[in-house]
Amino acid sequence: MMLRKRSLLSQVSKADYKGCNAASPIAAYTSGNDSITLKRRGHHFFICGVPGHCSAGQKKVDVRIAKLTASSAAPSFSPAASPLPATSSGSNSSSGGAVSNPAAAPRPSGANTATPTVVALALALLYPVFSGGSLR
Asked: Looking at residue 115, what is its pLDDT?
């Protein structure tokens, strides 16, 4: 995932995620080409660490790593519902809800390949936020 050098992706606690607070992140990613390895099951919360971006409605991502079994698919993730800024006509759009996972490719025996896939998908959702693209 390539981000602008001035971008700041922050991994935060659940409370900081809910409050859009990036003041004391668990980890901060600023190189523009960061790899993130999630080493535990459960929820992992990411927000834009640039002051004001999260509270202005830019995407936040909650990545959930589920317990994997031989028959389970890739873990689920869901972008947080973030209202988009009102247009000049005064209408307000919002998006939300869970995003369905596409069918996962079979895993090699004994390998846990779901974590990199989920992180890549979650970061792909954040790409428009950090690259200056528009959210639709």
From this structure: 54
Amino acid 24: pLDDT? 93
SS3 110: coil
Q: How many CB atoms lie within 10 A of CB 20?
A: 19
The segments of the chain whose pLDDT lies below 50 read: 1, 72, 81-104, 109-111, 134-136
Burial 74-100 (b: 16+ CB within 10 A, else e): bbebbbbebeeeeeeeeeeeeeeeeee
15-22, long-range: CB within 8 Å, 24+ apart, which pairs?
16/45, 16/47, 17/45, 17/46, 17/47, 17/60, 17/62, 17/80, 20/47, 20/54, 20/55, 20/60, 22/47, 22/48, 22/49, 22/51, 22/54
Domains identified in the chain and CATH numbers: 9-85+94-100+108-131 (2.60.40)
